UniProtKB/TrEMBL annotation:
Name of the protein in its database record: Pyridine nucleotide-disulfide oxidoreductase
Residue stretches making up the Pyridine nucleotide-disulphide oxidoreductase dimerisation domain: 366-471
Similarity section: Belongs to the class-I pyridine nucleotide-disulfide oxidoreductase family.
Keyword list, A-Z: FAD, Flavoprotein, NAD, Nucleotide-binding
Positions bound to FAD: 58, 121, 151-153, 318
Ranges for domain FAD/NAD(P)-binding: 12-327
GO biological process, one term: 2-oxoglutarate metabolic process
Flavoprotein is among the record's keywords: yes
Signal sequence, renumbered to the chain: none
One Gene Ontology molecular-function label: flavin adenine dinucleotide binding
Record carries keyword Flavoprotein: yes
PANTHER family: DIHYDROLIPOYL DEHYDROGENASE, MITOCHONDRIAL, DISULFIDE OXIDOREDUCTASE
Residues bound to NAD(+): 188-195, 276
Amino acid sequence: MSEPHGTKEAAYDVIVLGAGPVGQNVADRARAAGLSVAVVERELVGGECSYWACVPSKALLRPVIAVADARRVDGARQAVTGPLDTEGVFARRDRYVTDWDDTGQAQGVKSIGADLFRGHGRLDGPRRVTVTRDDGSRQVLTARHAVAVATGSRPVLPDIPGIDEARPWTNRHGTDSSTVPARLAVVGGGGVGVEMATLWQGLGSRVTLLARRRLLPRMEPFVGDLVAQGLTGAGVDVRIGVQVRALRRPDPTGPVTLTLDDGGELEAEEVLFATGRTPATDDIGLDSVGLTPGSWLDVDTTCLVHGVDGDWLYALGDVNHRALLTHQGKYQARTAGDAIGARAAGRPLDDAAWGDHATTADQHAVPQVFFTDPEAGSVGLTADQAAAAGHRIRTVDLDFNAAQGANLYADGYRGHGRLVVDLDREVLLGVTFVGPGVSELLHSATVAVAGEVPLKRLRHAIACFPTVSEIWLFLLAAYQRDRDTPQTASA
């Protein structure tokens, strides 16, 4: 879709910087409020999620997990007689990323009635954006009501000797490559690291995973332990408490050598760094409105940026650093889009906790899933987080093999669940599941946490027999059984 022509300056009610899922959602909500919208994108419409993160990684991981699931079921495992067809797996990925062609998503922006401007958008003072196209020409846009920054984040590479020479992979190389390296070193034990290790080991690479501390450190401790066991069982060499001190790749077509802090060395055809992300705000003109370029943007409950006069600048998704998850950014975008519409119409804001214009879930009910083997999912607070926040809590833990539905799902099913219960109100503050297929359990947990469903009522939500969701019955029964048993409650 081509952008509007015929003028070097144009005014809109709302300007959105970034056309990923977050930018598209706030644009859609603003249009639904009757506001005119301009969307600015310098790369592909659809953003990181559509082409180098969530969509391609899950398209690639699903065949790996499907084969692993088949091997856990007697009668099906005998049918798995060879390795994955990597060409078929890569072709599947290419279909889901539409061969990195954003025509369809660009048409989607047009279909909601927004105008798309391709180029590098930069703030140029209050309510003003300058778009520089690839040919050097410029378009000036002004916003009557709001500018929404949804430019996302980019991977961080550590400042260690040899990093440039090594030409390391990031999540982008990890999801758009169509060549399986014989040996791959993955550095980082967070979500990207464990998913990339799962993926490439499943595709036939010999993967070594290096992590400074336990895997998935922001989740309950047992999560990282079970995921590490799963990776090791799949053949990944998992090394915890290890850091990379230097890299060498003297031959650009040869292997890379990693020097480790324990004095050892590791050689691999490729090295992938999954060591954190930084906001893509370094070159969007933040200094023109009194903010620091390259910084995370601090926002209020409606995603309005603090420190900018006039209530016009919003920051959504990764850039506000609340939860670097696509679904959470889209939630923020829907909420902020409604708030922009209300402010533009002069209507009062419903920005109290859980109100229509409040991103309350950012603090209390963020769901996240990692598609490893076993899968790991959680929502809300961990036990340590809840205790640190001053809650009196009780934790309820249970292995999934208690549920017959889990054992029918996979012979010898191995998994674990935890509830974090607020003892004063008897509602759930957090839920964590680890095991095959648990990603499909997480929304029920999210409803329970976000809805603050009393446990007395929740026990009447009957799980179908025989399904993995029966674990809910066993967890709630364990809490009810132990509620009157003396136990030191955390505080």
